[in-house]
Design goal:
- Helix content is 34%, strand content 8%.
- It is elongated and about 70 Å long.
């Protein structure tokens, strides 16, 4: 639960920073919401929350010419794998039309159980921003990243939400729209 909460919160923050800092991609997504699944995958690929996972070698192995003895602790760098130029054309570029395939949540028996929930949270976040804050921007600020060996994340991210569009859908829940609040 703790890992899912922290990783999910950081994924939304890092993802919104990537989306709003790459304005052309944000505008492309607003114009074509069918790109939403690819945008989510690109958010997690471009700035993977999980920096590294640790495993213990269960047998002697050689990877890239390096001998790894049985019992050795191995750090798997998920984020680095998502920037492999052999796997991704122009990997540093944030591109929501890129093929949907990355290692942000691991693979196989080590695939993150919380991945579907994290992706759903990111989907809801992007949809709500497109509906209620389509003109949101990242104001100039000093961004401080957390000093954490395993998880990437920001201490804080300020977002200027801009005006709520007059044609925004009615919010679900008890919160009134700004136009419904008493004046003065």
């Amino acid at each position: 639960l703790g890992a899912g909460l922290e990783a999910g919160a950081q994924m939304m923050t890092l993802g919104m920073n990537s989306m709003l800092s790459n304005r052309d991609q944000w505008e492309k997504l607003k114009a074509d919401r069918s790109l939403l699944p690819r945008a989510i995958e690109e958010c997690v690929r471009h700035r993977s929350v999980i920096k590294r996972n640790f495993r213990v070698a269960n047998e002697d192995a050689e990877i890239g010419g390096v001998q790894i003895p049985k019992g050795a602790l191995i750090a798997i760098m998920n984020g680095a794998a998502n920037f492999d130029a052999e796997a991704y054309e122009d990997p540093a570029k944030f591109d929501i039309t890129r093929k949907v395939d990355n290692l942000a949540f691991g693979r196989g028996k080590h695939f993150c159980l919380g991945a579907p929930l994290s992706k759903l949270e990111m989907e809801v976040t992007l949809e709500v921003f497109m509906d209620f804050a389509p003109d949101a921007r990242i104001p100039e600020q000093d961004i401080t990243y957390r000093n954490d060996l395993r998880l990437d994340g920001m201490e804080a991210l300020k977002i200027d939400l801009g005006p709520v569009p007059s044609d925004a859908p009615e919010p679900v829940g008890p919160a009134p729209r700004p136009s419904q609040l008493p004046k003065g």
